[in-house]
Amino acid sequence: MGIAGRIQKTKTRKGKRHIEDRAPKLIENEKKVLILKGHKTNNVLQECLKDINSLKRPHAIFFNRKRDLVPFENITPVEQLSAKLDAGLFVIGSHSKKRPQNLILGRMFDHHLLDMVELGVQSAKSLHDFKNAKVAAGTKPCLLFAGERFSSDDTYVRLKSLLIDLFRGEHATAVRLGGFEHALAFTATEAGLHMRSYRVVTQRSGGRAPRVELEEIGPSLDLVVRRSRLASDDLFRRALKQPKQLKAKKVKNVSDGKLGAQMGRIHMERQDLRKLTTRKLKGLKPGKNAAVEGGAGDVQNPMDVQDGEVTT
Length: 312
Prior knowledge:
By secondary structure, this protein is of the alpha+beta class. It has helices spanning 3-6, 13-22, 43-56, 76-85, 149-152, 154-167, 233-240; strands at residues 33-37, 60-66, 89-94, 102-109, 112-125, 142-146, 182-189, 192-203, 211-216, 220-229, 254-256, 262-264, 305-306, 309-310.
């Protein structure tokens, strides 16, 4: 049987929509997250996985059943599940004596592993530990990163990119001030990585700009980086490649000023002032008795003749 014989064409509208949804697009769909449990977990890890599921709704797929997954030794089961469910991100929680309270964050490129980082949960507070109001599910968060290690350490640089990919939410071209409700802060220190979640509360300030207050709503995690498997530079550049249609076209003779103003340069031809069109006024029109230059028999005003001389 040839290749064409093995391809099954869709017979229903639902199947056609499913294939169109998974087809390549200029602006890809929001990445789905696989949230998986390892062979053994404890209560702290279960609460962490549930909190990540709450932050990623409705683009999270949570599996409550435990699986014998060891990503750093064999990533094939995760890749197969990612290809089946069209998920580009995964979070795996596992617990063992050698690596207690282990949290693995990773992402796929073309349904194959791109990079993943193993984090150890030192301390955690879940959403239920904070008895206050929460933000609505699916709210696009503001991501804040603090710490020199996010720019100097290669592992933390790639971890920052992974966290942005995991928590950035829906693609948006503009942000409404009233919809700015959720903030996620990541701080890198010598002790590890600290994650905090805040609800943004705006109140009246008497002026145009509102007064902003932050109220912690959880989850609150203190993490330490353990192992990592990072993609090579060539593979990472391939994953970041964008189609030509999305690249901004460069506009000639336009630049941005130091204060944010847009400056433009205009090239014009040299103007001929003799052809300049001016406003027509009665005082500029020649009179009826005006003399014709260079003509014979010019009419002169008798008042201009003095002592036999003609004044001009």
